[in-house]
């Protein structure tokens, strides 16, 4: 069983490339008689039907933002980001993916940290 974890931001520019990659993975898996489980972890409500149509299970994370300016929300967003990272590590630990595909966005630092951590495990 091959497990694949996708991550991205919430826009169509990030979701539709993942849909294309998921289609190709499904096609290759059918050609080679492999079983594949695909997951998407992120903060999107956009493109859920397309992902589900390709057999991708969606795991929602709220996704905090790190601002470069002072705001009343800044401490809350920092805390939200910290909890997202911890929750992501726990989810990744249980999914134990074999392939990690990330579509870059402005909050990609969380996924870069997780990818680096998983390389150590």
Give a topology summary:
Elements: E1 2-8, H1 12-31, E2 36-42, H2 48-53, E3 56-60, H3 74-95, E4 99-102, H4 109-120
Parallel strand pairs: 1-2, 1-4, 2-3
Indicate the CATH class: Alpha Beta
Low-confidence stretches: none
- How many discrete domains? 1
User: What is the β-strand count?
Assistant: 4
Q: Roughly what is the average pLDDT, rounded to an integer? A: 77
SSE series: EHEHEHEH
Q: Mind telling me the C-alpha Rg?
A: 15 Å
At the fourth level of CATH, the homologous superfamily is: Glycogen Phosphorylase B
Calculate the terminal CA-CA distance, rounded to whole Å. Answer: 19 Å
Structural class category = alpha/beta
Shape: elongated
If you had to describe this structure to a student in words, what would you say it looks like?
The protein has 121 residues and is an alpha/beta fold. It has one domain: Glycogen Phosphorylase B (Rossmann fold). Helices cover 50% and strands 19% of the residues. Strands 3-2-1-4 form a four-stranded parallel sheet, sandwiched between helices. Helix 2 (48-53) links the parallel strand 2 and strand 3. The mean pLDDT is 77.
Short description:
The protein has 121 residues and is an alpha/beta fold. It has helices spanning 12-31, 48-53, 74-95, 109-120, and strands spanning 2-8, 36-42, 56-60, 99-102.
Keywords, please?
121 residues, single chain, four-stranded parallel sheet, alpha/beta, 4 helices, Rossmann fold, elongated
